[in-house]
Amino acid sequence: MGKFWLKFLKSTAVIFLIIIFGVNYSIQKKKSIEKFKKQADENFFTMDNNISSVNKLLNILETSGDTYYKKNTRVGNNNFRFKYIPEDDLYISTDESERVVVGVDKISSRWSVKKELDMSEVLASSYDNVIGVMPDIAYIYYVSNSGFINLFPKVSDDKYSSLKNIYKLNFVKKELFSKEKSGENESFWSGIYKDPLGEDLLISRGAPIYEGSTLKGLITLGLKSDFFVKKIDSDLILEFFIVDEDGNALSTENLQNKKVSKFYDSLPQKIYDKRYKLPDMKPCDIEKIGKYYIYYEQCNSSPWRIYYVTDSMKLHSEMLKSNLVFLSLWFMSLVFLYGALKRKAVVEDSQQTIEKLQVMLRKSDKEIEKDFLTGSYNRKGFTKIANLELERMKRYDIDACVMMMDIDFFKKFNDTYGHACGDFVLRSFVRVVTKNVRLSDIIGRWGGEEFLVLLPETDYKGALLAAEKVRKMVEREVFYYHKQSLNITVTIGVSTLNVRKPLEKAVAEADAAMYRGKEDGRNRVVGFQDIMTKDVKWKK
User: Fold this and answer.
1) What pLDDT digit, counting tens, does each position of 324-369 carry?
2) Nearest-CA neighbor of 407 among 525, 486, 521, 490?
3) SS3 label, residue 79
4) pLDDT tens-digit profile of 471-488?
5) Nearest-CA neighbor of 490 among 534, 425, 401?
6) Integer distance in angstroms from the first to the last C-alpha of the chain?
7) Domain residue spans in the chain?
8) Domain 379-539 has CATH 3.30.70.270
9) Separation CA 506–CA 528 (nearest Å)
């Protein structure tokens, strides 16, 4: 009788195992696709945030050049000496420094050119610090309309002959020679191109420098392809494509071949055959084409389209891993029924491992300078980049303002719809704020639902207008969470910041003004100077 029940137990266990395996396989397939989307989102947000940091660094250099001309700075004591290199037909600066100034023709001795050389040296004084912050920058160079280049870092002598090729780059010709001289500084992204001084593929971020309405030259950051590739870190992403405005693609295969190719020409054949589906995709869409899954994102800080690709094999491997875990647990249950009592120890050991990983993740999260949830700076990162901006303010004796923003009745979103909805509200709020402030403005999550914005070169009245614009746009936007429409309002406090007032005091004043707005009914902008004036009148 005992043998019968043992066989019955084995047969029942096998049948039940097959049923559970099929159900679990279906569930894990859906989870694997969601995991692929999550990994793509994480990589995308990391890359987009790093692109935003490049924009900030370029803006600092661009502003330094504009400030130099606006202040009508006199020519300094930079006495450049050049030697002519006949075999390269170039004029090279002879001073010993980490940068090199190159003239494609003999450099004019006119006062305006000397002044521009001086200005390029002002920019060059920051090059080392910029690459220190962003080591993925291959080159920083100022390309002049007067026929010279200020390049950092200095290249070896055998590459001097290639320096003229910088003027032949399509984006340089377009921005420097074909651009209408409107006097408006419009920063730009280049397409994907081959390094004229090497073999790698580069993408450049640049901006024109004007003296009045006269275009003087371009300040350009050349980004290494590693800047994009090393951000793609995933066990499910098979391939990715960064597509520029001209339809050229940066992918793993292109980087290995060191060759620029069109996006469609880089696709696997089965995707290429149905490429007509790709233009109809919207951000965060996932499309299945044959055995491939394609996830699409659009950069907020650049004109690029990003496509992440995986295939059924990788998803099946992920599902098999999950089912193997399930099978292992089921097998351990059978072993338990036969007398093995080690299952509890295995579970406890697994729990300890999970707890250690959670501790490591929390420690890692504290060390980063970006708020992963919203993509804005966290308090540490905001303070760091704000201090860089304050140093520039001290150098040029300019003022700024800060805005303290708090989402009204934020707790009701968590209480009514759950914490996932609260996270959605925070991300959506930062997206709206980012669209309605300047590129030079710095956004940071100060804590909970409170956010800070630093407004460089902005007076008190201008800051109040900027804050009111943000308040109106947040109030006007309708957000949809799981088909549920949500309306958000924000209360904003404004305070001034200058070289005589530390950042901590300006933040405290903006915070006090924001709380006065909360007391007065929320969904409003309150300036600290205004409440101080009202309080003084009341006391009198």
Assistant:
1) 666 676 667 666 555 543 444 444 555 665 566 556 545 555 456 7
2) 490
3) coil
4) 999 999 888 888 888 999
5) 425
6) 101
7) 59-217, 379-539
8) yes
9) 9
